[in-house]
Design a protein that fits this description.
mainly alpha, two-stranded antiparallel sheet, 67% helix
Length: 445
């Protein structure tokens, strides 16, 4: 008679489980490593729809927004020249971005440039993704930034630069200034790796454009008759309409830089509105106090100053931080565009340096303060743990952009001055660039 072993059934079952487990482990050794593949990026239709919209909004900022904003501030004999420059830059930058500039900015993760792997948009196809959106959409979104940045520079040398030289200058400038600086911050370059916070372009767009504008204004020299001859804006209605278009388009600029339709994009939109309103009011009131009356040009300029300053901070600060940045930029840019400009005596026709470089510096600096969670922000960049560390990185980014852009822009302009000349003749400047360069009139007299 066989003796029944207590628990014998359980032991037999356990033995079978161990056998099955061992067989599965043996089978897994034959499979490609790793067994659990990384999650593949998946296209998100909501994110894609938002980014398609944002791309259109940012393009809308240049034409017609910036074009009208600038066109209204020049004299009537130069309105078409400014509109033409903005339109031509939009076309030229589109082609250069597709041919090679996108690759320099986003083609790889080198410290200083992205390489040539995406030249001629190689590998950018219908099914290629960048995160949760098509790479074609990401590429075009970034293209609109590459369009508006050189277009901003136009305001500094308005009414006196040769159209042909402007086209050559912008071609070289986007190649060796804008695209590399873009890579430093957004494309995997050295500033991004340090933890700089520049959500939508305080350094890449505004300090970059503002410094190039200042250098161009200094190298070209003052307009004929400046500052003694009156040179008032000829149509402030155009300027206010252009500023309004910039304000609306900037939601794509800032909220779109999240590259997703999420809470960060929503906060970026909110703080953009708050900062812009605060800056418009602060410029208006300080002008009212100083000169006795508020002006349309002043409130429009203040709004643009606020838009500029909140750009680097829009993904990192809260509503009260945005309000502080707005008030600070309105006051700071007013001072730079009036008192400082008169004291230094340079002729920056449409205050590109005073609004974009100074506004960008104010915004990039205060981003390092109001990003702190204790002040309502979303936290520091990279491995940074304090306001002091974040400010140090912000100052490095500001300084690197100021020096690199300033020096390289100066070299480009001086070379072009020797090769093809920078300025129109005195007679052409007196006649106006509309007739002298384009043989057309903006208005029938």
């Amino acid at each position: 008679m066989k003796t029944k072993i207590p628990g014998g059934h359980r032991q037999s079952t356990s033995k079978k489980l161990w056998t099955v487990t061992a067989a599965l482990l043996s089978l897994s050794a034959l499979l490609p490593f790793p067994v659990f593949a990384e999650e593949m990026p998946v296209l998100n239709s909501g994110d894609t729809a938002w980014m398609l919209t944002s791309t259109a909004l940012v393009l809308f900022m240049t034409i017609p927004g910036l074009a009208l904003f600038y066109a209204g501030m020049v004299r009537s004999k130069n309105i078409l020249s400014v509109l033409m420059q903005c339109f031509a830059i939009t076309s030229l930058m589109t082609i250069l971005w597709a041919l090679y500039a996108y690759s320099i900015a986003f083609g790889g993760d080198g410290a200083y440039w992205g390489g040539t792997s995406k030249m001629f948009l190689a590998g950018v196809g219908v099914d290629t993704l960048s995160g949760t959106i098509p790479e074609t959409v990401f590429m075009t979104f970034q293209m609109t930034f590459a369009i508006i940045t050189p277009a901003l520079v136009v305001g500094a040398f308005a009414e006196r630069m040769k159209f042909s030289t402007m086209l050559v200058f912008m071609t070289i400038w986007i190649t060796i200034v804008y695209a590399p600086v873009c890579h430093w911050v957004w494309g995997g370059g050295w500033l991004g790796s340090k933890g700089i916070l520049d959500f939508a372009g305080g350094t890449v767009v505004h300090i970059n454009a503002g410094m190039a504008g200042l250098v161009a204004a200094l190298v070209l020299g003052k307009r004929k008759g400046y500052p003694t001859a009156p040179m008032p804006p000829h149509n402030l209605g155009y300027t206010l309409m252009g500023a309004s278009m910039l304000w609306v388009g900037w939601f794509g600029f800032n909220a779109g830089s999240e590259l997703a339709a999420d809470g960060v994009a929503g906060m970026a939109m909110a703080v953009t509105q708050i900062a812009t309103a605060a800056a418009a009011l602060s410029w208006m009131f300080i002008e009212w106090i100083k000169y006795g009356k508020p002006s349309v040009l002043g409130i429009a300029s203040g709004a643009v100053a606020g838009l500029v300053a909140i750009t680097p901070a829009s993904g990192s600060v809260g509503p009260m931080g945005a309000m502080a940045i707005g008030f600070a930029s309105g006051l700071g840019c007013f001072f730079a565009s009036t008192v400082m400009k008169r004291a230094l005596g340079y002729d920056d026709s449409l205050d590109v340096f005073g609004i974009h470089a100074i506004g960008g510096i104010i915004g990039a600096t205060l981003t390092g303060v109001f990003c702190a969670k204790s002040l309502g922000g979303s936290g520091f960049g990279g491995d940074i743990t304090s306001i002091g560390e974040q400010l140090t990185v912000q100052f490095i980014g500001i300084g690197a952009t100021v020096v690199y852009t300033g020096v390289v822009s100066y070299i480009i302009l001086k070379i072009l001055a020797g090769v093809m000349g920078l300025r129109v003749t005195e007679d052409e400047e007196t006649e106006g660039l509309d007739l002298a360069l384009h043989d057309e009139r903006g208005y029938i007299i």
